[in-house]
């Protein structure tokens, strides 16, 4: 009895058994699980998707974020335009105007124009540079090789001793029917923007600018800026009209074109495409602005303009130096601002800057200095000194 009691006292009481889940087997070595195809190449897929998105964005007209406007912001989207169907046309009948045309082509290249460029020049000129003094050949080669100009030698004859009749050369642009549209401009200009947007305006046989400086005495179209649709029939008609036996002694390209298109031409805005340098010299700007309400602001006018045409009669063109006895009477003068009580010399500064810029570019591009100033006042007035009424 005693032994049984002792055994019971020494016996360890059993604890109630609790449930525990089975243990996972222990891996003896660290072997990663195989990844799926998407997990394995996900970084490359994301990169390809990002590149595809950027390509689609750049090739479309979608704008995700606002951006600063371009210096030349076109009003139309130029996507898929065949620019080989359009061309800028220039003509040169002497060495001075050849340099002017090369300056125009340089500006078109610099400003990013995409249309073709063609140049008519006397067929007796050539592109064989005979010497360092052969400036005409040098400039023709420069136009062709530097500015992608298509050279077109042409027979340019003078019917009489009148220097203005060489302006009929511009009629040759109508004969270039390999193009849908040609923009013919006189070369005594400074281009501020390219004009490619004009090739895409609504169709019309010709688009011209109004000779606003002749209003209200005359309402005519100027011939220094022509957006035309080439036609061999029209070209032949114009060349016949340019012959001395078909036109009056005071009829030139402007008169002939007004007779052809005065009532039917599309009229382009002169405030953008026909600013004259002489506008900075006058006191009344109603004709240019088109109203009496707007205040003349020369700086805003320059920002709006795409080109400036040099016309400051009786001053010579910008590649000729000014007569000292004349410039003082013709140069724009500073004015007094009524509200601020200070001098306003913006007209003078802009006008002087235009001439300085033209002469600097003439030197840089053509390696030519300005021609000597003519005698003033002239002793004898010849035909070449007389400017046809309304011409610029």
TrEMBL record:
Domain of life: Eukaryota
Gene3D superfamilies, alphabetized: Spore Coat Polysaccharide Biosynthesis Protein SpsA, Chain A
Keyword Membrane included in the entry's annotation: yes
Keywords: Membrane, Transmembrane, Transmembrane helix
SUPFAM superfamilies, per the entry: Nucleotide-diphospho-sugar transferases (SSF53448)
Residues covered by region (Disordered): 372-392
UniProt feature, compositional bias: Basic and acidic residues: 381-392
Transmembrane segments: 41-57
InterPro entries, alphabetized: GNT1/Glycosyltrans_8, Nucleotide-diphossugar_trans
Record's signal peptide: none
PANTHER family: GLYCOGENIN SUBFAMILY MEMBER
Protein name: Nucleotide-diphospho-sugar transferase
Source organism: Lepraria neglecta
